[in-house]
Write a structure and sequence with these properties.
Structural class: mainly alpha
Distance between the termini: 25 Å
Order of helices and strands: HHHEHHHEEHEE
Helix content: 40-55%
Number of helices: 7
Oligomer: single chain
Strand order of the largest sheet: 1-3-2
């Protein structure tokens, strides 16, 4: 038997499941433990709420939104959410211009965020205003408070389940796993 695990695309859980399946192990019952407690299921998008947070947005829909974003747009959106839903253009540009792992040149932040509009058109509620609002006069990015809180929950799930996020692999696009 030959088992290949691609550390660039396979999650830790997928690798463990592949090894367990290859050896015929049941992951829910450790060897020699007859009364093993059932493993807790991992949280997933289905565990997020369907309550309307505003204009038809739900926690589950916000998760689908961030899962579909390009990694750069997701990073910028996350930074805006971390700043309470409002971020000056200059602060966002400076943060990513100097970021050690997610560097985005100042001139490309706006371009990175174009996928937010595109994904919203595809997945967002019909007739909803822009999730990410731009105030050109004040030079601010804004997200409504209730939606920013929903995005915080979505990002928390994304941290637990990164295998559900869209990734770029060797310069090629990859869909969510």
């Amino acid at each position: 038997m030959r088992l290949i695990i691609d550390t660039g695309t396979d999650s830790y859980e997928q690798a463990i499941a592949a090894v367990q399946a290859a050896y015929g192990l049941r992951p829910d019952v450790p060897a020699g433990w007859r009364d093993a407690p059932a493993a807790e299921p991992r949280p997933g998008p289905e565990d997020l709420g369907d309550d309307d947070l505003g204009e038809g947005w739900t926690d589950r829909l916000l998760f689908q939104m961030i899962a579909s974003l390009m990694p750069g747009a997701r990073a910028v959106l996350r930074r805006i959410v971390e700043m309470g839903g409002t971020a000056p253009y200059d602060d966002a540009q400076q943060y990513f211009a100097e970021h050690p792992t997610a560097r985005i040149p100042r001139t490309k932040i706006g371009g990175s965020l174009t996928s937010v509009k595109a994904v919203q058109r595809r997945l967002g509620p019909a007739g909803a205003g822009q999730l990410l609002q731009r105030d050109e006069q004040a030079r601010l990015y804004r997200i409504d408070r209730a939606l920013a809180e929903g995005l915080q929950r979505a990002f928390a799930l994304a941290d637990c389940r990164p295998n559900l996020m869209r990734r770029e692999i060797d310069g090629q696009r990859a869909k969510p796993a």
